Amino acid sequence: MDNPKLVPELLCSDISVSLNFYIGILGFHISFERPEDRFAYLDIDGAHLMLEQATEELGQDRTWWTAKPEQPYGRGINLQIEVANVLRLYKSLQKSRYPLYRTIEEKWYRKDVIETGQRQFLVQDPDGYLLRFCTDIGERPIAS
CA-CA distance, 85 to 136, in Å (whole number)? Predict the structure, then answer.
């Protein structure tokens, strides 16, 4: 396992529900876990993510709340996760009838004098974290 410079740690209300979503539906893999801490370190195609079941009290144990926890925990968070095959994840969500936030699309973004393209969709995890899964589809010059 490589050592990425940034790994988000998402607090969740029920680690088993979150693991079912991330592993069972999306296909993440557990790199390591500490069940006694209700913690799991996940990976998909080199994208890393930590999950920890939250405690409700401020300052309890090692849960680092900056304010009183309220559902959905993920308000304001949008994580872009690049994967090798975004269509596989999309089809898995459809098969499980998990609700999508935005359906799959091809989107081009300006990057200085070129555009970079990606196939993407958005889904909220069980705690409201907004996940934008994408696959790179190349670059093109900006149309004049």
Answer: 9
